[in-house]
Amino acid sequence: MATKNTEEKNLPDTDQVLMNEDDMLKGVLEAADFKKDPENRKLIQIKRRGKLLFQFHVRPLEENELNSCRKRATKYIPNPQNRHLRIEADTDYVKLRSIKIYMATVDEERKKLWDNPRLCEKFNTIEGFEVIDKVLMAGEKDQICDVIDDISGYNESLEETAKNLSMPEENLIS
Question: Rounded to an integer, what distance in angstroms lies between the CA atom of residue 72 and that of residue 95?
């Protein structure tokens, strides 16, 4: 009987449970807003020969956005087993990286930069991600994709994520 009373004394009271639940819900809602949080954006500066050419911000991508990027960059063919179904044939990784950068660029900057009608006309492109292919070098695209992966939660251990380590303010692409 003494152990039961000891266990009851260690249990939190109802007010503490409700307070913790409210804090937890607040935290969950804050975590769900990661795409809009300016703290999660990273500045990308494109520099060549020591000269800053242009800059833009990228934001984290949701898993379904990354999946959408992959689907857009993948060719599909009819399934030989069942002609009504399609199967993946080939993924264009150059296109995938460009679409990923395009999708991660914050909306207001994407419109001014990648979707700029003058640039599309100059480069004879239809879609904004095609401008990225014309403007960024392969190594630059690779580094930017690494930054996007980092802020999207990849390349971090669960412990690092839990500690909410801060990343450098700027990510320079030289």
Answer: 8
* CB 89 within 8 Å of CB 76: yes
DSSP class of residue 11 equals: S
The 10 Å Cβ neighbour count of residue 29 is 9
Which residue, chain included where needed, has tokens 């095609």?
130
Give alpha helix (H) positions in 52-167. 63-72, 93-104, 107-112, 117-123, 128-135, 138-151, 158-163
Q: Which distant-in-sequence residues (6+ apart) come within 8 Å of 93 by Cβ? A: 73
Strand 74-78, strand 86-91: pairing? antiparallel
> In the block, which residue shows the tokens 């833009």?
56
List, run by run, the mean pLDDT of 10-residue segments along the chain (174 residues).
57 67 66 65 95 96 94 90 83 96 96 96 95 96 96 72 52 57
Give the 3-state secondary structure of residue 92.
coil
The DSSP annotation for 22-82 comes to HHHHHHHHHHHTTTT-GGG-EEEEEEETTEEEEEEEE----HHHHHHHHHHTEEEEE-SS-
